[in-house]
Write a structure and sequence with these properties.
The chain is built from five helices and no strands. By secondary structure, it is mainly alpha-helical.
Length: 157
């Protein structure tokens, strides 16, 4: 599960740089590359990270939880985190559009607000996942033989 934690740290660092960009704290000559880096990070790392969790990690943990008293709690956590992924990605779609306009001038108030929303939503999401879900998932998966998909999630991400 350490790979998921490492991904969260990397993503949160990138979101801090994105916030600086949205607040106009990036030198004008670096704006274009910062915009491209932010777009690449979200499109190439965050969205695939979410899909990996939703298609491999969550189902594997749910399978391991079957027949345990924790199954209801795990199901609720998975629903919550999947909904949070959607919210984060919806905000990203709006913010991405605003970022693409940064090439032409200063960040708008809307860009700053959307960046703040994205950072807040992702920070809360990652904290919940780190504090509540991943320790439970590791405990459950550690008691069963993880399938190949979960092994891939845990060690190859």
């Amino acid at each position: 599960m350490n790979k998921f934690s490492e991904s969260h740290v990397r993503i949160l660092g990138a979101l801090e740089r994105l916030s600086q960009l949205a607040r106009g704290e990036v030198a004008r000559d670096a704006v274009s590359s910062a915009v491209q880096a932010s777009i690449a990070m979200f499109d190439d790392v965050v969205v695939p990270h979410h899909r990996l969790e939703e298609t491999q990690l969550f189902p594997s943990v749910l399978t391991a939880a079957r027949g345990t008293p924790r199954v209801g709690a795990i199901e609720a956590m998975v629903r919550r985190m999947t909904a949070e992924h959607k919210t984060i990605e919806d905000v990203w779609v709006q913010l991405r559009e605003e970022l693409e306009h940064l090439h032409f001038g200063a960040a708008s108030a809307r860009c700053t607000l959307l960046a703040r929303r994205l950072v807040t939503a992702y920070t809360l999401h990652a904290a919940f996942e780190e504090i509540e879900f991943l320790p439970l998932a590791e405990d459950l998966v550690g008691r069963s033989v993880p399938d190949a998909a979960l092994t891939h999630c845990m060690y190859e991400q």
